[in-house]
Specification:
Helix content of chain A: 25-40%
CATH architecture of chain A: 3-Layer(aba) Sandwich
Largest sheet of chain A: 8 strands, mixed
CATH superfamily of chain A: NAD(P)-binding Rossmann-like Domain
Oligomer: homodimer
Strand content of chain A: 15-25%
Structural class of chain A: alpha/beta
Number of helices of chain A: 9
Distance between the termini of chain A: 39 Å
Shape of chain A: globular
Order of helices and strands of chain A: EHEHEHEHHEEEHEHEHEHE
CATH class of chain A: Alpha Beta
Number of strands of chain A: 11
CATH topology of chain A: Rossmann fold
Radius of gyration of chain A: 16 Å
């Protein structure tokens, strides 16, 4: 499948590299084409890797990953263009974290709204699936780094889109357990969880953590 | 030990009953003494159970549990009185949930503050420990209702107070794993987690859920 990955940071490059290794054709998108990070990524990743603007990557992809920083995601998606995203699955892995006041960061959107919902409202013809935002980049694409079965979540209004993302998470990335939380408003839950995740990182001394949901 | 339990609802009565069963003397406190719920609880629980006002229960307890609704906790604690709480451990199990706009509830305090911090700021001579607010009342006092090992958290500024609460959680209530998240500001994490917990309840169809933190 052709996949667009918006964002050239750690999350974008980790996801893009994994997707290429699974056999997909991946275009990495950034504000301006030909940036140093994107060019270096293409050079080191090989034939199925390419790069361009946000709009190029969104146009290229049958599925698109939002790996931009949460505070810049709406602007990046506007640059990608609603027409280029229309009808497509957009996997939103970003968190609206504000680091401007130091550590630990706080959230700029939360409680009665979420970044996932804001994106879905602004791009109503795109099928937004919030996922993977509860773990760091390495665990996103290799959950076995944390021993034992633990969980990843999907939130979205389109059942077919969630099913396709779940298929990629399980058969592609190796997630044994994917919990469908419900519609896109449930992104409020996984984004708010970041405030606990940050404290767990602090207490346990490692960002390579995740949770397993257990029930009676 | 003598323990004061503020609040006569499901959480207060479940915790109070468990504490009596462990051999503690427990006074349940409410806005006005002699209320129907508190009197019924004393009658059904026996010799080590008593009831009174918030101030009576705070004065009685060597340790005090805040089991009032989060939105009413500061008012209840003011009624309990700073002098009656001075030097004591206050275990805050409440969440500042707002149900006024229907389900799911939202939080009235969060992100850059927490109910735990607000209580600690207003009662600086009290040793506040936030704990148990991430599970429902039945699981608080009987974690084995959810099979397997899962986690409960403590947040607070006083290491000695956290150690005593941890002792009660493990040897009293049966928690195998207690994670010390750090100072009282880490209550922001466990209170925000409620927004995920509510969605997990919705997705899994049961409030008898909890999480296990897993790490590399």
């Amino acid at each position: 499948m052709r996949i667009g990955v918006l964002g050239t940071g750690m999350v974008g490059s980790t996801l893009a590299t994994k997707l290429v290794s699974l056999g997909h054709e991946v275009m990495m998108g950034s504000r301006t084409a030909g940036g140093e990070k994107a060019v270096a990524w293409v050079r080191s990743t090989g034939a199925r890797a390419s790069q361009g603007t946000f709009a190029d990557a969104a146009r290229f992809g049958e599925m698109v990953f939002n790996c931009t920083q949460g505070g810049a995601s709406l602007e990046a998606l506007r640059a990608a263009g609603a027409a280029n995203l229309e009808g497509k699955i957009l996997v939103d892995v970003a968190n609206p974290l504000d680091f401007s006041k130091g550590m630990p960061p706080s959230l700029t959107i939360m409680n009665t709204d979420s970044l996932g919902e804001q994106i879905q409202r602004e791009f109503p013809e795109t099928r937004v699936v919030k996922s993977l935002n509860t773990v760091n980049a390495q665990i996103m694409v290799d959950p076995s780094r944390v021993p034992g079965d633990h969980d990843v979540f999907v939130s979205g209004n389109d059942a077919g889109a969630k099913a396709r993302v779940t298929e990629l998470l399980t058969n592609g990335f190796g997630w044994a357990r994917v919990i469908d939380l419900g519609d896109i408003t449930t992104a409020r839950g996984t984004e708010a969880y970041l405030l606990l995740w940050i404290r767990l990182w602090g207490a346990l001394g490692s960002p390579e953590i995740n949770i397993r949901v257990m029930r009676r």
